[in-house]
Specification:
Structural class: alpha/beta
Shape: globular
Distance between the termini: 72 Å
Number of domains: 3
CATH class of the largest domain: Alpha Beta
Helix content: 25-40%
Radius of gyration: 23 Å
Strand content: 25-35%
Low-confidence stretches: none
Largest sheet: 7 strands, mixed
Number of strands: 22
Number of helices: 14
Length: 463
Amino acid sequence: MPEQFDVIVIGAGPGGYVCAIRAAQLGMKVACVEKRATLGGTCLNVGCIPSKALLQSSEHFEEAKHKLAEHGVNVGSVSLDLARMQARKGEVVSANVKGIEFLFKKNKVTWIKGAARIAAPGKVEVDGTTYDAKNIVIATGSESIPLPGVEVDEKQVVTSTGGLELDAVPKHLVVIGGGYIGLELGSVWRRLGAEVTVIEFLDRLVPSMDNEVGQAFQRVLGKQGFKFRLKTKVTGAKKGKDGVTLTLEPAEGGKAEELKADVVLLAIGRRAYTEGLGLKEAGVALDERGRVKTDAHYATSVPGIWAIGDAIVGPMLAHKAEEEGVALAELLAGQHGHVNYGAIPGVVYTWPEVASIGETEEQLKARGAAYKVGKFPFMANGRARAMGDTDGFVKILADKATDRVLGAHIIGPDAGTLIAEIAIAMEFGASAEDVARTCHAHPSLNEAVKEAALAVDGRPIHI
């Protein structure tokens, strides 16, 4: 007799493991299937966590080499121990994935090791063993999108996975794709000494970003030494002993040219990973981009089979997947799980950071919304001056009639932390005046948010 569960979650990334834990907290018998040797999915193993570890380490290196002297801190000659930096990254990853394993044991979630296939509604097969489940949750995440003519070997031509594991700093790193992942990893290797060129098919970086912030972002990265080739496509990559030769063409057509690199990072986006799950055989419908089709409550076309995270429509963000995991577990328990998709922040963890939530100014214009704008530069913020981090600004968009906050876009120090204040405000339907009249500690970076909210009404104090 197959072992029976109330819920079997396929995939132990942020969406899957959170869904499993929350379902167990709600009294269900839960199993989570994961084919990696460790829990945590792409995010904890080869994505969010290791990249942030390297970003932090590379920031320290650059600070010691170029910035501490400004503060009267003289450290002498600074050298890079890349092996130790990589080892520390591994230690951070290990601590995080072991933490998930502990949480599974604490909450009595059964970890089934292996690759899962949905044999039929209510039945999951893992390495020849079949398990019964009242509910099956697809939380298989995403994978890097390939590019025709550019063959990945994770040594000379790498995805984010290989880009986190380089054992030497490349002299010239070429990043294909001007999105979050490419710019973050490009930042790591630029700080450590690489020349970095970003090639982007479109005419701007991170096209989903508010255009004004995106332009400021490109200027700041340019000052840091990034080189950009916009409106350019890569049509081929030839590997040799002395590096990789890329073939480039203008996006709008024209003469091809070549560009040499020591290492090429392919980061043109990610796609839903559903390979080998038996979805077609089980009758689970996919959309035109290979994502699992669901209704507003994460139900697929087959009763009892659900899907969340990168495998379905929406921003491919770990925290979006986590929120969906909690919402689905609560729905399965008869509660009212819900995700506010209008208030999901996105962050680029370069330095300065870039954070966004809600609608951009371009989106508001496109739908004909009447809105107000408030902006405040970090140059006028006392704490930012004391830190020596004055690049960037806070931009708040509010409804012209009601003053309700519709979106916020920040480029500056700790933008990823500052955006949380606006997330709370939007979750509670706050107005810009509500934010402006909230007392903020002085001196703090958060005062820039308060001043931007005051600027919505044309009454900032410090500019």
